[in-house]
Amino acid sequence: MSDRPVKSIIKWIGMLTVLLGCLVGCEDGEKVTELQGAGATFPYPLYSKMFDEYHQEFGPRINYQSIGSGGGIRQLKNQTVDFGATDAFMSDQALQKSDNDILHIPVCLGAVVLSYHLPGVSQLKLSPSVLADIFLGTITHWNHSRIQDINPDVSLPELRIVSVHRSDGSGTTFIFTDYLSKVSPSWLSKVGRGKSINWPDGLGGKGNAGVAGIVQQTPGAIGYIGHIYAEQNKMPLASIRNKSGHYILPSLESVSQAANTTIPDDTRASITDTSAKFGYPISGFTWILSYKEQKFNSRSIEQAKATKMLLKWMIGDGQRFVGPLLYAPLSEPVAKQAQAIIESMTYSGEAISI
Amino acid sequence: MSNGSRPILFVELKERLFKKLLLVSGLLAIGLLLGIFFTLLMESMLSIRETGVSFLYQSIWDPVRETFGAWPFLLGTMITSVLALIISVPFSFALSLFLGEYLKEGAFRSVFNGMLDLLAGIPSIIYGFWGLFVLVPMVRDFENSIGVLAHGVGIFSSSIVLALMIIPYSASISREVISLVPQDLKEAALSLGATPWEVIQKVILPYAKSGMFAGVLMSFGRAISETMAVTMLIGNSNKIPTSLFSPANTLASVIANEFAEASEALYLSSLVELALILFFVTAIFSLLGRYIIKKWMPVQ
Questions:
Q1: Is the pLDDT confidence value at B4 over 60?
Q2: Cα–Cα distance measured from residue A80 to residue B69, given in angstroms and rounded to the nearest whole number
Q3: Among A168, A178, A289, the residue to mutate for chain B (most B Cβ within 10 A)
Q4: What is the pLDDT of residues A55-109, one digit of tens each?
Q5: Cα distance from B278 to chain A (closest Cα, Å)?
Q6: Domains of chain A
Q7: CATH top-level class of B71-296
Q8: How many of the other CB atoms lie within 10 Å of CB of A250?
Q9: Is pLDDT above 50 for A25?
Q10: Contact A69 B238 (CB under 8 A)
Q11: Percent of chain A with pLDDT over 90
């Protein structure tokens, strides 16, 4: 009686072994069923839509964790993911530290908009220097002559300005401070650009929702927010004077226009304050990061192929999901550059054919 | 099965295994604590070597120029937590006396107790949202009426919400301790002609004070390490606060805010060092609490 359970246990173990063996065997097979990615939160709504559609159309499931650009870069460096994603391109210094070349593949553009809360004011124009001085804390009231001068038809209230920024590290902050650093020498020398910076003035809110919450509640507040978020919440947006002197309201059209300029071959470029005539000046690319040499951490050729296929789809066919989610699609020349970057991927030093 | 010795062997084996299991889980807890400590220490080594002790008193936190000082956050953490404690203690003591001494039975009591426990279980993000959308506008009006710069968010708002969050903790512990005061003692006092207030003052408080203090300390620990609600309400300014209404920042909220996007080695290491400081601050208060509880323990 007592040896019956033992027998059945042995039987179970045997079955489990066969099953596991089969599963492991399946992994080695032709089809890759899952890819891992991690990184930026800013394009997450787009990526989750894209990856869902890709899974339905082609099969592979893409598991994307939106843990932030910094986390994405760390995970790529630890080689625990197939690709990373970032809103701020990596510096030359950071790239040199990696033995395996890291490629930046642009997927779309996103704008950073300025939203305000001024009772009785429905349109607002801002020039770059005024914007910088507001966030530096040197212009403190809305009826300041420098703001009034560029908004002659608006009666601005005598309210204290409360500038609102992101308290969490974010690509949105990078794009915004990159812009301010380009247009204001005193911003560049006192503060600089980064995903988290030492803010000279104002309040911090966590995430787009936190900033939007403070702006919507506080009379006299102005804050920078991701375009999609502001648009979805129907917040009033300021038009910004671009390099060629036009005041531009953010829209998909004006954001795409901003990238109509020469971009370096590796696409690591900031497109804030470009000379595009009708381009909105505060926007940036968001990138997928991948290793040039795809054979790392004992990855198979199939995984490399699957990664390449996915990336090609994202900058090609997948672009049809970009607009509806209020990101701006890649312009033709940039898409071509991205294509060339993807083609430069190798496996064991040889081009990957799919 | 027929010889009878087997079941005893089995029972002994079971007992021994059970004991081992308990030992292992106990060791696991200690191992976990040590593991966390050493991980934090090792990961923050770079920052410790780079900035040394000045990390504690430097007041500039600038990731762009890689200057890191924790003083504003240390200050912000202590101010909000102490303020929350000051606000919460009268309420939680009153509540615990009421539940432990005055409302000792009846359906009402279980409703009250249930509510209190429920309050302790509300996720902090809900407190945060409530604070942001209900409390902050009220605080802003208040600030306007007394003529300070009206941000709404800041130390004052976050301390109030923190106080609300920790009241259930200290109140429920104090309630348990108060209901443990021996009935004979109270009856003896009453029979000597003591009023209910005198019973509380002369019998219950001396007997229960160490336990009540432990409750306060536990809630203080929670206030120090509370992250989400504070991050939403404190205004996240890295400057040294100048008044009760200024925006500030705490250790926990800086880590929550900046960790995800930090990629440079020194920056990351400095954030981990903030966590190490938080670890020490909580440990110090917990040890202090144990010491005081031991000293005040009533002689049985």
A1: no
A2: 32
A3: A168
A4: 999 989 999 998 888 888 889 999 999 999 998 888 888 888 888 999 999 999 9
A5: 19
A6: 35-109+284-351 (3.40.190.10), 111-283 (3.40.190.10)
A7: mainly alpha
A8: 24
A9: no
A10: no
A11: 58
